[in-house]
Amino acid sequence: MVPVPSREDEDDRHLHRSLKTLKQKRTAIGNRMRGLLKTQGISWAGPILKLSAEALGELRDWEGVELGAGIQARIRIQIELFHQVGQQIGALEKQRREQVRQGEGKKLDQIRLLESLKGVGINGAWTLVMEAFGWREFRNRRQVGACLGMTPCPYQSGSSHREQGISKAGNRWCRDVLGELAWTWVQYQPNSELTLWFEQRFAQAGPRARKVGIVALGRKLVIQL
User: Fold this and answer.
1) pLDDT for 57-116, tens place per residue?
2) Distance from the first to the final alpha carbon of the chain
3) Crossing angle, helix 14-38 and helix 69-102, to 10 degrees?
4) What is the pTM of this model?
5) Bridge partners, 152 (sequence order)
6) Upper half-sphere CA count for residue 196 (Cβ side, 13 Å)
7) Helix segments in the chain, DSSP class H
């Protein structure tokens, strides 16, 4: 069954999707600036926000020579883009905060309720509600896992039997925040049943096993939420 959102429910998804896209764009611009500086033998270790036109003029390349006019002009364009995107992100985040603080409706009530939990911030609460919780109806935990692409995919053929990870066939916007939510839950809810389960199963395991464990914790967490 494919639940079709109403026009209003579909429209409510665009704010956080725009935020996600802009943040990815800002990261890409920052990486591009670091890459351009690297071609001149300069490793910029500080925050990209502190890379201004004035700071750019004081930099010297690997030979101790001032950067050329062409490369400076190119990086200045990226600096302007970086700040423009940052302003757009700030405006959308302010709009979202005001909606949560002053708005009315079932979805905003759900967001405020989720956000009241330690370890769940506005990004996770808003995304889960607008993408799934606010308008979908789940009958059991399997439907929740399938909706978000958190369903195991075992492979069996003769004597061969192995796990292939999760399906990733569901809503990717929710799935993107579940990893962050799972880690923050472990950090801010150390005495919860889910955290104790994770620590018991994966605390002494290696990095790969802990990644597998955090995905499993994310699935359990979203079902509980």
Assistant:
1) 888 888 889 999 999 999 999 999 999 999 999 999 999 999 999 999 999 999 999 999
2) 23
3) 160
4) 0.85
5) 166
6) 3
7) 7-11, 14-38, 53-58, 69-102, 106-115, 122-128, 141-147, 172-188, 193-202, 207-224
